[in-house]
Design brief:
407 residues, alpha+beta, 6-stranded antiparallel sheet, 29% strand
């Protein structure tokens, strides 16, 4: 009886850890606030180790009381569970190290963002930005300035705001996330892991996309479909064929939506965030509207790296995508409705060839569900999701449904 109790408790612990690590969120994610995964791994590990340690103590006490053999089996079972968890953690860390190709690693140790300049001076031109936990390769350090390279950005940052050496390596193991790197110019993502499933959107090679779940199972998909998919979506696929091919698919998180992608067209790697370039859009005229648009972008950039909160409207403490654009324009005396769909309806459509700084890009599958602010140079700033917060992306990281002009 004692043995059965311990086995059940151990199994319950494993199920609890799995539930924490893989929260369900579906196409109707607008009603569910995501929680950031980066940074909770360590606390989960400590919780599981604490529970297992308590169970081991119970087993050892039972061994003393019963003279031993049954309790010894319990300890062996728990020891196997603990060793398996340690092995999985070791394999994950080795995989992360394999994919972090930095000669001398540096990680941005800031709450929001760190400016990258074209030379080592605070008066120098800003050419890029590194948000919290962004990784870089440190080329050299001189007079308090580090020459770094991250993504397509090569420049200088204040060295005091970089984690370096062993401290940076330990941080990387906590914050690196599994990303999908698209191998083609554009790629279809779908509502379900099947080529028969309707297309949700198209994504590009310009961005790394967060992998929500790398290894799909029949049981996971059954639960996911029951909670998050319409009958029409489920009936669009041959479920048995889909289940048989799950090893070739992965689940991505794009903004606040969960979608599926074929592994045949992506490379999955653990990555740190990259620095983003900041390109100044050339003024097409000296009109007051152009100056106003530049001011709007400059104001919006102050909040880069701040948190995303579903339903939030605070530019500093947490906002969602439409709360962000509403708050930015409100500062300049322009009223925008509360939701992204309503903002799309309230703005004048322009073509991609006519796009100007300050325009709004609207995204979604069939209907608008996400909005971003165009900052020039083919880039947008937006409140993306709870994991990334307010970030800069390529304007075509997914296909926009509409480009709207407020002014």
């Amino acid at each position: 009886m004692r043995k059965n109790k311990l086995v059940i408790l151990a199994a319950g612990t494993a199920l609890l850890a799995a539930f924490i690590c893989f929260p369900f969120s579906g196409q109707a994610a607008a009603s569910i606030e995501e929680k950031p995964l980066a940074g909770i791994t360590l606390s989960i590990d400590r919780y599981c180790e604490s529970v297992l340690e308590n169970l081991k103590e119970d087993a050892e006490q039972a061994k003393k009381e019963a003279g031993g053999e049954e309790a010894s089996d319990d300890v062996a079972i728990l020891s196997n569970i603990s060793e398996k968890e340690k092995q999985e953690k070791k394999e994950r860390e080795e995989r992360i190290k394999l994919n972090l190709k930095y000669d001398k690693l540096g990680i941005a140790n800031v709450d929001t963002y760190l400016n990258v300049r074209n030379r080592g001076s605070e008066s120098a031109k800003i050419i890029g930005k590194m948000t919290k936990n962004t990784g870089c390769n440190i080329i050299s350090v001189k007079k308090g300035w580090a020459k770094i390279e991250s993504g397509k950005v090569k420049g200088y940052v204040k060295a005091e705001y970089l984690l370096q050496g062993e401290e940076a390596e330990k941080k990387a193991l906590k914050v690196a996330t599994l990303k999908a790197i698209v191998d083609t110019e554009t790629l279809n993502v779908r509502y379900l892991p099947s080529i028969d499933s309707p297309i949700y959107d198209q994504i590009s090679e310009d961005e790394y996309y967060t992998v929500e779940k790398e290894h799909l199972t029949k049981e996971f998909m059954q639960t996911y479909m029951a909670k998050h998919c319409s009958k029409k979506t489920v009936n669009s696929v041959d479920k048995e064929s889909m289940y048989a091919d799950l090893e070739n698919w992965a689940m991505l998180s794009i903004d606040n939506e969960k979608v599926f992608i074929s592994k045949d067209f992506v490379d999955l790697q653990y990555k740190l965030n990259r620095a983003v370039t900041v390109q100044e859009e050339k003024k097409k005229s000296s009109s007051s509207s152009s100056n106003r648009a530049a001011g709007i972008v400059s104001y919006a950039m102050q909040f880069l790296g701040n948190p995303y909160v579903w339903g939030g409207t605070s530019l500093t403490n947490g906002t969602d995508c439409s709360g962000f654009t509403m708050g930015i324009y409100s500062h300049f005396g322009y009223y925008l409705p509360r939701t992204s769909a309503a903002q799309a309806a309230a703005t004048r459509s322009v073509s991609s060839s006519e796009v100007q700084v300050g325009d709004l890009f609207f995204y979604g599958s069939g209907s608008v569900s996400h909005v971003a602010l165009y900052i020039g140079g083919g880039q947008i700033i937006h409140a993306s999701n709870a994991r990334d917060g307010i970030k800069i992306s390529s304007a075509y990281y997914r296909q926009p449904l509409k480009i709207g002009r407020v002014m």
